[in-house]
From TrEMBL:
The keyword Disulfide bond does not apply. It comes from Arenicella chitinivorans. This is Nucleoside hydrolase. SUPFAM superfamilies: Nucleoside hydrolase. Gene3D superfamilies: Ribonucleoside hydrolase-like. The keyword Hydrolase applies. Residues 4-310 form the Inosine/uridine-preferring nucleoside hydrolase domain. It comes from the Bacteria. One of its GO terms (biological process) is purine nucleoside catabolic process.
Length: 317
């Protein structure tokens, strides 16, 4: 049974991922660590606590993490994607509990030391907390069972620039620093998460079948579905569906054979016009610049059996 720490910036699709982590019988959710991203850190932490209340799991610890990227100035949160409250502008009540006193990085390092070889770290926001954790304990990659990251895109265009996906764009230095380490790591990026989509009828089924949690997932998804519908309309489609970015990384932990992977030395471009772009080098040529090759191999998903992923998600919820 995967023991999971979920590093998250809730976030509408983060809420879907948290729901799956709680609902799936083979996942033991040890804690949430929060990071800036879809909203500022105070908001993503409040949202994490609120989501746990709504899902009836207020005992799950929440450790607050980074408010800003490692080196660059934080970009304003994209309120047209997740709303000003990060959860689709719904009514959010005061959470029943508070974050623990440890920082996200401290929590990750302590839990990995106490459970050697057992923890799967799933990161579904900017990688700032993971970068802080590995600099706090450089032996962390050897202590975790695996690291699964939602971010980047191997061959698909980006979603915040033509080249960059949002989580890597929001802290490219952190993402690049994380993949310098020898983790058992897998990237689940836009190449697959734009295929694993939730349709409005799926969300209606969740609303009708999953009680208070289902109603919450429906309510929060209204804003997100509208955002995706306007994007799809520009492409000439009248579909109402949204990408299941973050939950797809969670589904990977229980259904890895639904994903087709490649592997290679991995870098994320730090700055300039291509900041946030992912490179997973499967060629591994003897390049002139060793900076491209002096890296451990990281796996990345390039294909997915989307119906199986969707079915696994819906069955659990
Ligand atoms: C990622 O960016 C955020 O908006 C989502 O929560 C997801 O983690 C997708 O690019
Ligand atoms: Ca996220």
């Amino acid at each position: 049974m995967p023991k999971i720490i979920l590093d998250t910036d809730p976030g509408i699709d983060d809420a879907q991922a948290i729901a799956f982590a709680i609902a799936h019988p083979d996942i033991e959710l040890l804690g949430l660590t929060t990071v800036f991203g879809n909203a500022e850190i105070e908001i993503t932490t409040r949202n994490a606590l609120h989501i746990l209340d709504v899902f009836g799991q207020p005992q799950v610890p929440v450790a607050q993490g980074a408010s800003d990227p490692l080196h660059q100035t934080r970009y304003p949160a994209p309120d047209f994607v997740h709303g000003t409250d990060g959860l689709g502008n719904i009514h959010i009540t005061q959470p029943s509990s508070a974050p623990v006193s440890e920082s996200a990085a401290e929590f990750i390092v302590r839990m990995a030391s106490e459970n050697p070889g057992e923890i799967t770290l799933v990161a579904i926001g900017p990688l700032t907390n993971i970068a802080h954790a590995v600099s706090l304990d450089p032996s962390l990659p050897a202590k975790v069972k695996s690291l699964v990251v939602m971010g980047g895109s191997v061959a698909h265009p980006g979603n915040v620039t033509p080249l960059a996906e949002a989580n890597f764009f929001n802290d490219p230095h952190a993402a690049d620093a994380v993949f310098a380490h020898d983790w058992p790591a897998t990237i689940i990026g836009l190449d697959v998460t734009l295929q694993t989509v939730l349709r409005d009828q799926d969300l209606a089924m969740i609303r009708d079948a999953a009680g208070r949690a289902g109603k919450f997932l429906w309510d929060t998804s209204r804003f997100y579905i509208d955002f995706y519908a306007s994007r799809l309309a520009r492409l000439g489609s009248t579909d109402r569906s949204c990408a299941m970015h973050d939950a797809s990384a969670l589904v990977y932990t229980v259904l890895p054979d639904a994903f087709q992977l490649i592997a290679g030395p991995t870098r994320v471009i730090n700055d300039g016009i291509a900041a946030g772009q992912l490179s997973v080098d499967t060629q591994q040529e003897p390049y002139v610049l060793p900076a491209w090759t002096d890296r451990p191999l990281t796996s990345a998903a390039i294909g997915v059996d989307a119906p199986r992923v969707l079915d696994t998600f819906l069955s659990a919820i």
